[in-house]
């Protein structure tokens, strides 16, 4: 029993906008005599769009209308109707994510692209998605090693470290190929980001819009940008400028990194020997790539070829954002899909508590959560138990009901996400003890944390599993 | 000058003395240890022996100097096969060999012990026997493990509700250990699920010396729509606790095996008993809706 799911990935980056359509193949990999185990067994990109420049109305506004046209055009060219799309993600990355109307654009687009295409953003997520799309996660899993992927785009460099296939750290830097734009091939500056001006000042280069830079000056800037990347990885001593260029927290990973891979548009020019015009895109991208590719700090490290470069983020968004829940779950398909449900995770210590105390903790956290967020729906998440006894399940079900039921309005569903394989029995236990009539969704084999949002799609494989997309991960230690 | 021979002799003497001393102190230790017990010499109390099967086989790793231990252990997580156990020459290490025999002993125990009366009492299950008189007969005469005496059938009829939608019973099969390990969690879990679906459940009981097709007799005798048996699986070296659940819609004696639906591998290293229970309840509901089981049932 095989089933195909069609997925779309849309990446609206600092410089380019791209789409990919991919086919995810799911299959029950368990024997006929066992409890089903439905998994994604293969992923295949079936269509790649052209690479479009991201249309902007001004320095602070994205041209939503133009993007909508690009998307409609590519759907037509791919001959894939909107209704065919089962899942997918729109990601808005780099500098584009900081534009004033980014939120509004991405939400309209996700609705346009398909019923269960979700909007995602956030520098940590960008790095993870790009690292997966670039094949770094897979490589680290297959070789049981640690790989860092640097996705160097137009506006930002997103770093993600993978160990044995799992993300262990992320960071984001204001380093990119389109942070300086030129009016002409005489290197007359048309645009320079604020961060790049700070970097330029640090090495004594004065950038002003309308003034020319020399090739030497641009080379100096690119070298310094490359060095910042090396500093962030701890490969060369750190300077105070590093802090300035980080958009969030620095990498905390102190263990060995076995391999480096590079993705993003800039990566294409790192080892490209061709001496074609360095400034043909009117920016510093090509030179930045060449500069990083020839830097001395790179000589001592093992570089692996990314399976995707400029397309890493879009392929990641299209093929690596959808997960499949466990195959024994409790759902109510009439209320699916549900989108943008914030996660409220029960503290690991609290999970150990006896029933009464646990329900107090859940109620307390729910009250606190409601104060901070005006959103009503919330998914309660926990690790859950391995091999729970029937008694433990009943206690837990009652504790959840006592903690949550009074806080929910009539008709609001009770949504629970657990890591360990126990969702069907927990859902059953909740149904058995629930006083009010209420839909219950209880899914497992999904790992989420506070700060995440979850989207749960319509069931697949004859109702056995649901596709799940987890968004805006806040990476905590 | 000291001659070579003299040196040789000296070395030999020293070595001999060392060996003797060691032997003596070992023996002294041994005796002081065993003397405190009233055990005969050379015997050790069983309680003091470490249980070799306590370590999960997936965590059992004796490769010396592994290139990447973490990666190896991750691979081992996916199988109970004995890999990463190292060797001495072409043979097992003593520890591995003992572990192998210990696991085999677990399997033997699972087959040859009985489910305790206390457990059956606690679960409120009355017990009936098939035509087998003891384990030996049970092992050698599979045909008798699927039949009941007239008295047993009368007892079942007398104690159970007639014509239930779902008749569940428990049977030792080839592993009493599996029943001991799982029944307290799986039985209430299935019952709760069936109750949630609003199904009429029969009286559960226990069948000693039971083979799977005994369920067909029970199905006919009680006129059950769906019959469910929870039965111990033939144990292997991985676990003795694995249990199966066989289900049939309108089971009949002599019906083709393809009409049975089975969920196997229920134990703490496979599917947990409670989660399996909830899954089984849903399958039973499907059987009643589709009026089918086995290959005819579309899940």
Automatic annotation (TrEMBL), chain A:
Keywords: Lyase. It comes from the Bacteria. One of its GO terms (molecular function) is lyase activity. Pfam families: EutA. Signal peptide: none annotated. SUPFAM superfamilies: Actin-like ATPase domain. Gene3D superfamilies: 3.30.420.40. PANTHER family: CELL DIVISION PROTEIN FTSA-RELATED, ETHANOLAMINE AMMONIA-LYASE REACTIVASE EUTA. This is Reactivating factor of Adenosylcobalamin-dependent ethanolamine ammonia lyase.
TrEMBL record, chain B:
Keywords: Bacterial microcompartment, Cobalamin, Cobalt, Lyase. It catalyses: ethanolamine = acetaldehyde + NH4(+). InterPro entries: EutC, EutC_C, EutC_N. The keyword Lyase applies. GO terms for biological process: amino acid metabolic process; ethanolamine catabolic process. It is found in: Bacterial microcompartment. Belongs to the EutC family. Catalyzes the deamination of various vicinal amino-alcohols to oxo compounds. Allows this organism to utilize ethanolamine as the sole source of nitrogen and carbon in the presence of external vitamin B12. It comes from the Bacteria. GO terms for molecular function: cobalamin binding; ethanolamine ammonia-lyase activity. Pathway: Amine and polyamine degradation; ethanolamine degradation. The lineage of its organism: Bacteria, Bacillati, Bacillota, Clostridia, Peptostreptococcales. Adenosylcob(III)alamin binds at residues 212, 233. The gene is eutC. This is Ethanolamine ammonia-lyase small subunit. Its cofactor is adenosylcob(III)alamin. The basic unit is a heterodimer which dimerizes to form tetramers. The heterotetramers trimerize; 6 large subunits form a core ring with 6 small subunits projecting outwards. Binds between the large and small subunits. Its EC number is 4.3.1.7. One of its GO terms (cellular component) is ethanolamine degradation polyhedral organelle. It holds the Pfam family EutC.
């Amino acid at each position: 029993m095989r089933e195909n799911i069609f997925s779309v990935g849309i990446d609206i980056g600092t410089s380019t906008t791209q789409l990919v359509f991919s086919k995810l193949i799911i299959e029950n990999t368990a024997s006929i005599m066992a409890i089903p185990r439905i998994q994604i067994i293969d992923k295949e990109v079936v269509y790649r769009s052209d690479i479009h420049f991201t249309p902007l109305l001004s320095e602070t506004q994205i041209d939503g209308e133009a993007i909508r046209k690009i998307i409609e055009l590519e759907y037509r060219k791919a001959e894939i109707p909107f209704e065919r799309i089962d899942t997918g993600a729109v990601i808005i990355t780099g500098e584009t994510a900081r534009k004033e109307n980014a939120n509004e654009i991405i939400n309209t687009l996700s609705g346009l692209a398909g019923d269960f295409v979700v909007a995602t953003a956030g520098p940590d997520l960008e790095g993870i998605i790009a690292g997966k799309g670039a094949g770094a996660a897979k490589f680290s899993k297959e070789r049981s090693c640690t790989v860092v992927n640097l996705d160097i785009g137009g506006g930002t460099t997103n770093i993600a470290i993978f160990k044995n296939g799992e993300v262990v750290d992320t960071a984001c830097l204001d380093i990119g190929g389109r942070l300086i734009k030129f009016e002409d091939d005489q290197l007359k500056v048309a645009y320079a980001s604020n961060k790049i001006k700070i970097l330029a000042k640090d090495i004594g280069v004065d950038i002003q819009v309308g003034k020319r830079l020399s090739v030497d000056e641009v080379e100096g800037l690119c070298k310094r940008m490359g060095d910042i990347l090396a500093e962030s990885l701890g490969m060369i001593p750190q300077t105070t400028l590093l802090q300035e260029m980080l958009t969030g927290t620095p990498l905390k990973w102190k263990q060995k990194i076995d391999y480096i891979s590079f993705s993003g548009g800039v990566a294409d020019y790192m080892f490209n020997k061709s001496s074609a015009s360095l400034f043909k895109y009117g920016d510093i991208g090509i030179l930045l790539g060449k500069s990083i590719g020839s830097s001395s700090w790179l000589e001592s490290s093992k570089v692996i070829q990314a399976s995707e470069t400029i397309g890493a983020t879009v392929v990641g968004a299209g093929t690596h954002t959808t997960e499949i829940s466990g195959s024994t779950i409790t759902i109510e398909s009439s209320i699916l899909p549900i989108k943008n449900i914030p996660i409220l995770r029960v503290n690991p210590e609290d999970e150990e508590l006896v029933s009464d105390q646990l329900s107090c903790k859940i109620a307390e956290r729910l009250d606190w959560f409601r104060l901070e967020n005006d959103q009503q729906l919330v998914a309660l998440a926990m690790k859950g138990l391995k091999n729970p006894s029937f008694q433990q399940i009943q206690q837990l079900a009652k504790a959840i009901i006592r903690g949550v039921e009074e806080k929910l309005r009539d008709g609001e569903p009770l949504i629970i996400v657990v890591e360990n394989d126990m969702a069907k029995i927990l859902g059953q236990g909740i149904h058995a003890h629930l006083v009010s009539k209420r839909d219950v969704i209880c899914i497992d084999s999904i790992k989420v944390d506070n700060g995440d949002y979850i989207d749960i799609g319509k069931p697949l494989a004859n109702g056995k599993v649901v596709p799940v997309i987890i968004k805006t991960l806040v990476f905590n230690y | 000058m000291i001659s070579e021979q003299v040196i040789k002799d000296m070395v030999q003497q020293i070595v001999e003395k060392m060996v003797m001393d060691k032997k003596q102190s070992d023996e002294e230790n041994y005796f002081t240890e065993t003397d405190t017990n009233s055990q005969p010499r050379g015997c050790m109390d069983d309680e003091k022996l470490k249980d070799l099967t306590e370590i999960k086989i997936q965590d059992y790793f004796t490769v010396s100097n592994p290139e990447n231990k973490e990666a190896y252990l991750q691979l081992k997580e996916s199988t109970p096969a004995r890999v990463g156990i190292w060797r001495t020459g072409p043979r097992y290490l003593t520890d591995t060999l003992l572990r192998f025999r210990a696991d085999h002993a677990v399997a033997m125990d699972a087959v040859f012990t009985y489910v305790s009366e206390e457990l059956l009492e606690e679960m409120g299950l009355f017990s009936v026997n098939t035509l087998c008189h003891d384990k030996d007969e049970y092992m050698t005469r599979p045909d008798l493990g699927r039949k009941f005496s007239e008295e047993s059938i009368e007892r079942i009829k007398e104690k159970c509700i007639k014509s239930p939608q779902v008749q569940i019973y428990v049977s030792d099969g080839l592993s009493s250990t599996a029943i001991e390990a799982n029944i307290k969690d799986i039985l209430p879990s299935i019952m709760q699920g069936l109750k949630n679906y609003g199904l009429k459940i029969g009286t559960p009981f226990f069948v000693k010396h039971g083979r799977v097709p005994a369920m067909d007799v029970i199905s006919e005798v009680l006129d059950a729509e769906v019959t469910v048996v929870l039965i111990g699986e033939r144990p292997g070296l991985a676990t003795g606790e694995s249990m199966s659940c066989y289900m049939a819609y309108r089971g009949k004696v002599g019906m083709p095996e393809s009409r049975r639906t089975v969920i196997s591998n229920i134990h703490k290293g496979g599917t947990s008993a409670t989660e399996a229970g909830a899954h089984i309840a849903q399958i039973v509901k499907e059987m009643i809706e589709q009026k089918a089981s086995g290959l005819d049932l579309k899940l």
